């Protein structure tokens, strides 16, 4: 079983570490690193999945990969990216509570700047509900959000890449 997931472990953990590094670097460059870190996640996740599947196909499975194998290796890869990234971001926020407060203040500022647009489109109750949810946001919410935004696109990219790389023995 380990032979199936060796490349997934390597590239999943590497992708998670790169995501943590991105979050840390972006935290020093701007007040709220969460949005740009999502963009970085949209780049690193498909690259990690592609490399895991390619390495599995070329170096473990003699140049062949079925759709099911691709989905399995891809699943382990993007789940590891999400877990490592989420855990790392949570640790960063625990170690630097001021960063969490800056993220929270930034989200409240964006909400207040767009207050009228939100009220016009969704109503006053929706705005108040969003405001209350942001005020109740916890450290784990930031980490969990980052993880979920690695998993959801990860599934999509895994399907596409598995189809592209699929090659079954004759």
From TrEMBL:
Keyword hit for Transmembrane helix: yes
Transmembrane residue ranges: 12-30, 36-56, 76-96, 147-165
Origin: domain of life: Bacteria
Coiled coil: none
UniProt lineage: Bacteria, Pseudomonadati, Bacteroidota, Cytophagia, Cytophagales
Pfam families the record matches: DUF4199
Protein name: DUF4199 domain-containing protein
InterPro entries the UniProt entry points to: DUF4199 (IPR025250)
Signal sequence residues: none
